[in-house]
Amino acid sequence: xxxxxxxxxxxxxxxxxxxxxxxxxxxxxxxxxxxxxxxxxxxxxxxxxxxxxxxxxxxxxxxxxxxxxxxxxxxxxxxxxxxxxxxxxxxxxxxxxxxxxxxxxxxxxxxxxxxxxxxxxxxxxxxxxxxxxxxxxxxxxxxxxxxxxxxxxxxxxxxxxxxxxxxxxxxxxxxxxxxxxxxxxxxxxxxxxxxxxxxxxxxxxxxxxxxxxxxxxxxxxxxxxxxxxxxxxxxxxxxxxxxxxxxxxxxxxxxxxxxxxxxxxxxxxxxxxxxxxxxxxxxxxxxxxxxxxxxxxxxxxxxxxxxxxxxxxxxxxxxxxxxxxxxxxxxxxxxxxxxxxxxxxxxxxxxxxxxxxxxxxxxxxxxxxxxxxxxxxxxxxxxxxxxxxxxxxxxxxxxxxxx
Length: 403
Ligand code: CTP
Hints:
The protein is an alpha/beta fold. The protein has helices at 20-29, 48-55, 73-79, 91-98, 105-112, 125-129, 131-142, 168-178, 213-224, 252-263, 305-312, 329-339, 381-399, and strands at 6-11, 33-38, 59-60, 83-89, 117-121, 146-147, 151-154, 160-164, 188-193, 198-201, 204-206, 228-233, 245-248, 268-271, 278-280, 299-301, 318-325, 344-349, 361-362, 364-368, 373-375, 379-380.
């Protein structure tokens, strides 16, 4: 997502400054060219050498350095960049930026920036709640600056409250989003992900090997491109960005209820969840005890959520299903596409190395309603998600008579 992007990171003086080492390292790993500017207070918490080593670029601390041959430093750093991010953003830098004060390198960058600006505040809860700071944040938002809200939790000063620097993943998500064209803005996308869990008794359940990675990649991919995303997720270990409306469910029946509640007003529905086809007929309210050598568990069919969505599909709605197969992939995929009234079906052979459950890559074939079959090569699930979204949007735009 960040390949070739130029990001200037302004670090100011709060204890969370130590976390910028991880942030800069992640941005560089994601392909960005990162340049760092630090205030003198920031250097009390983390050294320029650390950031220089991680960014692979010189770190700037002085507004008027000797020997800068590349032009005027603060103009170059502020304007020869795709994004300026201030992390951690102290009450002081927010106050300076909101009031046009430029008395060191980082505050001067803010005055000179022509690119989008992202502030990541971190401070004591009382400072964060101070009406002067809130007024300054409001003012900067009005001028078009973006903010990643601090999270709630234990603070360095020993208190607990809102003021912790947002999680690294959340900051990176916001950076990616600001650098991604918002071609899905205005669309409502509903995604399902993960397995379902069908309880047998208070300690046991039936489930499958789905990790949820494909569905989460689709939800995040759509949100990055500006869609309003609802993610209905079975039990997984994954986190989704705050911008996504998450609904956690356990069973197929709970998933059906959540999906049907949101389906009517969704423009695009992608059912990546591996829904259990059957669940126990009865759920014991006590632990089932070991008795005979053999035992059978009577199962009953769960609702076919995608099938139901296919029957209710509205004119301008696009419905995408998945099929995880171990054999006869083409035949099963074609039949699911038709039977469930889908626009696209994403099929994968889960027996192939690098495809299917619990891995970071996938190898899919895309089945179109007109009979076209499009094989994609092995790629990261995030990339597969973008490919699927590109095609779903193409179908949606064609249906709406748009280009
Ligand atoms: N699906 C669903 N509800 C179910 C079963 C499946 O919504 N009860 C959806 C899945 O989310 C997926 C698609 O239907 O998008 C295909 O799921 P899959 O398990 O491959 O197919 P089934 O229709 O269940 O058929 P089979 O298990 O016999 O292959």
